Amino acid sequence: MLTEAIGQREKSDPKTAPVKDAKTATGTPVKDVKTAAETPVKDVREAPAKAVKAAPVKEDKEDKRSMSSVLYDEIERVIGGDNDNQFFCLTMPGQALNAADYSYDYKNGGTKGPKVEANESRLANKLFDPCRVTGADNGMTLPYQYRSALDMLSPKLDLNVAEAKNSLRKLLLTPYPYKFTEDDTAVHSLQDVYFFLYDQWVEEETKWSEEQSEQKQKLGDGTDAYLDWYESVAESRLSAIDEKMSKVISVFTPNDMKILEGILDSGSGAELQEARAMLDNTRKRDPNGGYIYPVSFQPSNWFELLSTSFTPTDLLDDPSALAQKLKPLSVRRMTLNTQIESISALVPETDRLKELKEKVTDAETKVSQAESDLVKDYGDGVRDVFHTVCDLVSAFSSDVPKEVIKQLAGGMTLPSGKNIDELVDALFNTASAGYSAQQAYASAVSELADAAAEEIAAQGLEQLSSALIPLKAKLAEVDEEIAELKSKIQLSSAVNGSGEDSRSAEEAVGGNSVPEGYTRILISTSASHLSEESSQESSSTVKKTGASLFFCGGSGTSEKQESAFSKLSQSADSSIDIGMNVAKVSIERGWFDPGVFALTGNMFNLTPLKVAPPSRTYDSFDDRLKDMASGNCVFPCYPTAMLIARDISVRFTMTSDISSEVSSAISEHASSGGGFLFFSGSHGSSRSSSNSAVHSTSTGSSVTLRFDTPQIIGYYLECTHADDSIYIDDPAAKTQMQEYVTIAEFVEKYQKLIEAMADVKARSRAES
Length: 768
Hints:
Mean pLDDT: 78
Number of domains: 3
Radius of gyration: 38 Å
Distance between the termini: 69 Å
Shape: elongated
Largest sheet: 9 strands, mixed
Strand content: 5-15%
């Protein structure tokens, strides 16, 4: 069931400025739907890309738009469009794309395989609630809803037209006095005689054409011999053809017959069956069940746009962000070491194992001693931070920076009387000793695991082997990821300098270049918009404000995230800069003909539901959206294009007194692959946990996020033509039926006509 749209567009929205008596293509008068500053995005192959810079949003105390409204309005201003029946639907979060899922060798004439066709079909044929902002598609698919809409309609058969057609058929079936041969005694109808004579004319024309072709091959086309032959025989042949046509005309002229054919073939309703047949004939079986309905995208090489303009240096997280990614790996390694130690204790003890177990116990004791004072003063929650800081010791050429430690510890709940700076100093002072103890413990566990595995294999202990071997493999994998992160931290320490980020918004989030086929969008606005409630038409699946919006729709935001969001959004000096390159990709479906719904005024509806709202006048486009989302429509709108964004950068600038806490919350969320605002932090394909799609850099009092995965951030939806059909059980339909004929009545009358003409033929035959 379609989700009911709520709210109303802002008065400041340029698309809701009063436009009087605007007329839609469907005959539905709609006011207030014209978009200003329309700049359509051109095909990637037709014109070079052009950087379109958005004017920074001015700080205005009266501007109470939500963050989603700010982005939505800017996209509409830059991308534009002149279709009054089309609107943009922003999806939150975006849908990450992987080019490999849609690529094929089109340059060498390659065709799409079943996998590509299935992926494209799933991408293009999803449906959305009729609203401007949504959290996801509504679970319905275009082919099935389209078929449902076709099946609920039935054509009206006009009584006068039906009787006129039957009169014409009666004329064609009327007996006509003519003998096909001298001995012919049969009674023939007008159409029998006409088509008999017409076939003779066609046969004569064909014989003459074949004779000309034969002589051209024999004598040569255009030669004197051919021309002499043509002059000698053409007149007689053409006279014979004219004679045949004269016989046809004496009965009924071909032009008159074409008029009759046109009248008999006219009438609305056949389009419904043609649409159904086209839908059924195009679909292909999906190995996973169901059907694939192929689509085409324009530009056809759209999947080549799914890359990034960011350089490896651009995507290099700062040490604090990388430390956040290291934290779960450090915790995971300690857990694996403990599990390996526990399983090794179950192996029958040998002298070698006994020695290694004692070594592990001694090393573990030293680790506990190194963290004991911290745990005593700050609680058990400090353990995870402690082990991460110990891992960081070898990643820096000198001491672990206190700012990095501060961000790692930023989410902890401190005991009464303790502050974050004291905790940072305590962690800083114990880092080196803790690192040595931690490394000794990890080395001892590794030796114990190897020895235990050998003993398990020697004694044939299969159950212990099946438990220990996977743990060793997982530990090796985690160690490899930790080593990779440490290398990145070393590189980042050298590349990312410290200090304030004094760059302009364009320099910070503008990207390196505008790729071919893309348009650049830049937005600069106050962070206060984050806390403004959106009044746009939105589905109930989307979080429109608060920390849930800031952290990309997360429903379970932590206390730390809530606090960070609150401080950022309430700070008058905090700002947000967003930069991205966007491309509009059109969707084409050869099997889909929405124009059939423009004829619903001449149709009955077999259900009380509507395909789309009926024709009526709206005060604003949002009123039309509410009507479409009322739940009474089975096919109110459908996607015609998707908006792809890449090279997405977001910079949060804040005052220094809140920068540490906010940066910590942002980096921690980014390290886990979480998204921000409207952008997804997930990859289009699976990667290791240390390779997040979101890369954060903290510099002074600002945090810059870069998303390296192209993603769909919205769809352009077309409003289905107004459904002016009448429910067949409606009293108004009963009145209209007096002017129309039912299918049963039409068949009955036509059958009587055929029977009557058969009787006439029989009498004529008897009389002759």
